[in-house]
């Protein structure tokens, strides 16, 4: 173990430089943190697009990564707050359970795929399949999202301040989608739904969690959800199977 | 002479092409407008392990004494990268079957039977239950496209992880569970509405192709601190390439499932017409491992139609490290038992043919979520039957191995085998019995 840890006052952060320490050393150290650890702030330098940075965390700590990350950053995250000061590769926050992941740049495909909980914020744009098969996570994308986003999305919310690509919400289950900009097309069984007071309140709560309540007009958003016509096999839907 | 009553007439002639089953399916399709869904694997006759024979020892080979000389059956899985490989006492494991498709009692019984024999069970497309974790001394956690119930806590309490690319009954198809079985518990584990006809995705949501899979495997290893063996399971279709790519992606273990391997539910047409028989897949998978210098370093598990110790021994002789059973394990628990014949008839079928597992009305209490039906299956007694059956499979495989002069079942080799048919000889790459002819063999499959 030659993990180079240095704690520099005054923020008392633990610094890890991935130019000199390995990914395994970083993740191993993060996995060993006890629930009541005092090492609650970690700063990671030179990520250089490495994959699986800060994956599998389960402690109430903040990990700030200075630079671009590769695939599956913060995968299956529990509790931790992970800040990416850069762009993120495929599957950032995949299957996350709780905590927060905040990408300050753009994100590649499958943002928050199958995520069960927590909040995932992308300041820039997200690519295709954003929120695919999501299962309870809240995703807020300040830019636009690519095609086939929220495919088979089961639960949670996807909030998009920009536009959505083609086939939004294809084969959607019960996830709720809020898009402020244009939607290129809706996927099978996804329909626009009435924006009632309860939905405005829900959206406001998500915007507040993302720290942008008041910065955008909730009245500009439209809501999309499942028409629930594919919930049961039926001859009339055969072309959709 | 015009008395027609004495004119000889031909008997009614039924078409071999439009046989009784085919006609009934056309009528069913015409009446409903939707494909037939059923459980289990391919039912048509395909070349199988029955088409192979062991040569046994004689003048040029020494057999081992049946009751005095040891014939080992243990197997270590995950020796390539995992810090904690799995040590099985027998080369037979229990294949992935979900809670949801199976009752909680059935899952418990599988765990009890397998644990009693020192082997592993596997979760399925529906997450891990406490019952199966508690009753399985070694549990393999499946990582599927749907990711139903997937969470890092279960990942960490699993003994191994199996990334499912496909299964033999439906290579290229996703899971299916119809509304009758989506009870509140099943629905909540999958984060789905109660009672819907659930279609699982067939592609993983966050990776595409072997280059991505390599990164995905690295992530799963990082999350679990490189402790767990990682399997990659494929349905038998192009086993040479699929096995090679699984190895390239970093798998510890490759699982190849032939078309006779069962499913909880999918289209009948898919089960019978997509994928290749288990017999045709084993040698291709083994050859891929050999060509990469990874045979025995990356372990190979073969499944799909394993029924007895001869099937086990033949799969091992062709180069597999272990086999997995699903359908046979369910039969051992009590599936399709003639004891329930009257009830099977009431469902329009017969004991031995019942495959409407998706309807959730299994009289034996196995492929159901109905509490009353489920209560019929005593998990302790059913687990005992499975343990007995696993013991017999192992004893039978040992019997054959000893007869071939092997002190461990893994010492069985293709040289111990011949084929009864030209097809089987070509597929298994062993000589036709009584000849030295291996059809199509030029070293390439």
Automatic annotation (TrEMBL), chain A:
Q: Which InterPro entries match?
A: Glu_synth_asu_C_sf, Glu_synth_lsu_3
Please name the PANTHER family in this protein's record.
TUNGSTEN FORMYLMETHANOFURAN DEHYDROGENASE, SUBUNIT C (FWDC), TUNGSTEN-CONTAINING FORMYLMETHANOFURAN DEHYDROGENASE 2 SUBUNIT C
Recorded GO molecular functions are: oxidoreductase activity
Coiled-coil segments on the chain, per record: none
Protein name, UniProt field = Glutamate synthase domain-containing protein 3
Highest taxon in the source lineage: Bacteria
From TrEMBL, chain B:
| UniProt keyword annotations, A-Z | Oxidoreductase
Q: Describe the location of the Glutamate synthase domain by residue ranges.
A: 82-334, 358-406
Which Gene3D superfamilies does UniProt cross-reference here? Answer: Aldolase class I (3.20.20.70)
Q: Under the GO molecular function aspect, what terms does this record hold?
A: glutamate synthase activity
- The regions listed as transmembrane in this protein's record are none
Q: Name one GO biological process term.
A: glutamate biosynthetic process
Reply yes or no: does the keyword Lipoprotein apply: no
InterPro entries linked: Aldolase_TIM, GltB, GltB_archl_type, Glu_synthdom
Pfam families noted in UniProt: Glu_synthase
**UniProt xrefs under PANTHER family:** ARCHAEAL-TYPE GLUTAMATE SYNTHASE [NADPH] (PTHR43819:SF1)
Q: Can you tell me which family this protein belongs to?
A: Belongs to the glutamate synthase family.
Name the chain's protein. Glutamate synthase domain-containing protein 2
The organism's taxonomic lineage, starting at the top = Bacteria, Pseudomonadati, Pseudomonadota, Alphaproteobacteria, Hyphomicrobiales
